[in-house]
Design goal:
Strand order of the largest sheet: 13-14-15-16
Number of strands: 16
CATH topology of the largest domain: CBS-domain
Helix content: 25-40%
Distance between the termini: 62 Å
Number of helices: 12
CATH architecture of the largest domain: Roll
CATH class of the largest domain: Alpha Beta
Shape: globular
Largest sheet: 4 strands, mixed
CATH superfamily of the largest domain: CBS-domain
Number of domains: 3
């Protein structure tokens, strides 16, 4: 299936010379997946709400400052390839071209709506993200924003003092709350002080509650339909026997990632922010991870997700980067995170940590197998 009948010519466009204040207003009033930034009708990039949240830039700054490149999609590209491009580009919307000209856009919702009937074949348990980042009710809004920025996520489950699910705070919640309250700040008062007080408010005042959840056993189609019904980008995943426990999250990005799984014999590798790679290629990364998994023959890697994130700090012009590797295997999940100057060094550090973690899993499994053998022998005495 290609996207010729899925993509749309309806999208929000903003001139590169416009200021960020106008972009914030558009997100508040229209809530688009992203804004296509152009200059004299020529495509420049994409601006998302998450980019605005992660930025400290003033509203009078030009939009082009934050616009980032997104994968350029051809109108006849395959849906699976487009899903992969959105995930690896770290974006929810991308421009669609026809004969070299900007024709329209494609976004995650359009793809998911087109393949919805096929999502009955997957369960939430097969594709959800475990070990998610959470925040407590009494954490400040500023702390929540920093956590969203630091981990590059768009939602945080909120837990109470007992560790049970109490709510969710999302990028959209934060932007909406900040926008509504900034409008009340007048030039007569101390604007900086008012903003500081806003950031000191507890997450409890901003979070959404009650929380829409998904259970491990339900189909991905049921979960996605619930996202559409409530206009959510993700759901908190809870165990079948207790909907108060945060087991993970399922996002539309997780579903897109599942759509892009390959049926090839080689390991399927997803790379987020692939444009940050220098000399490394997808095959290099796949080969490097395979060397690790081969050291534990009983571990079959079903999917590998490698994510790069660039920081502002630089050394002789090379930016500090963080690399996170997550493996979904028949023996559970394994991962490693590392930082370094440049993508190559960051990946190398993350790979070393991944290898140590995989070998640790191997040791634990071996201990359990030995324990089982010993218990069986004792049972025969």
């Amino acid at each position: 299936m290609d996207i010729s009948d899925i993509a749309t010519t309806e999208y929000v466009e903003l001139e590169a010379e416009s200021n960020l204040g106008k972009a914030r207003s558009i997100f508040e009033e229209q809530n688009p997946k992203g804004i296509i930034v152009t200059r004299a009708g020529e495509y420049v990039g994409v601006l998302t709400q998450k980019q605005l949240l992660r930025s400290h830039i003033e509203d009078h700054t030009k939009v082009e400052t934050l616009a980032k490149s997104a994968p350029k999609i051809e109108r006849t590209d395959d849906v699976r390839d487009v899903a992969r491009s959105l995930v690896e580009g770290g974006t929810k919307v991308a421009p669609v071209f026809e004969s070299g000209d900007l024709w329209g856009v494609i976004n995650e919702d359009l793809i998911l709506e087109a393949v919805l009937e096929n999502l009955d074949a997957l369960t939430v348990e097969q594709i959800f993200t475990e070990n998610v980042i959470t925040v407590t009710e009494d954490a400040t809004l500023g702390q929540a924003i920093n956590r969203l920025r630091e981990h590059g996520v768009s939602r945080l489950p909120v837990v109470d003092d007992d560790g049970f699910l109490a709510g969710v705070v999302t990028t959209h919640d934060v932007v909406d709350f900040a926008t509504r309250n900034e409008q009340r700040i007048t030039g007569k008062g101390d604007r900086a002080g008012d903003l500081d007080r806003m950031l000191d408010l507890p997450v409890y005042d901003v979070m959404s509650s009650p929380v829409e959840t998904a259970s491990l056993g339900e189909t991905v189609r049921e979960a996605v339909e619930r996202m559409f019904d409530h206009d959510y980008a993700g759901l908190v995943v809870t165990p079948e026997d207790d909907d108060r426990v945060v087991g993970g999250v399922l996002t539309k990005t997780d579903v897109l990632r599942a759509l892009s799984y390959t049926e090839e014999d080689v390991m399927d590798v997803q790379i987020t922010n692939i444009n940050l790679l220098e000399t490394l290629g997808r095959d290099d990364i796949r080969s490097s991870i395979s060397e690790i998994s081969d050291k534990y023959q009983k571990m079959q890697v079903r999917h590998a997700h490698v994510r790069f994130q660039e920081h502002k700090e630089k050394l002789r012009g090379t930016p500090l980067m963080q690399c996170t590797i997550r493996l979904r295997t028949n023996r559970g999940q394994a991962g490693g995170t590392g930082e370094g100057y440049g993508a190559d060094q960051a990946f190398s550090v993350a790979r070393d940590k991944l290898e140590r973690n995989v070998l640790e899993i191997k040791g634990i499994q071996s201990d359990r197998e030995y324990e089982g053998q010993l218990l069986r022998k004792l049972g025969k005495l």
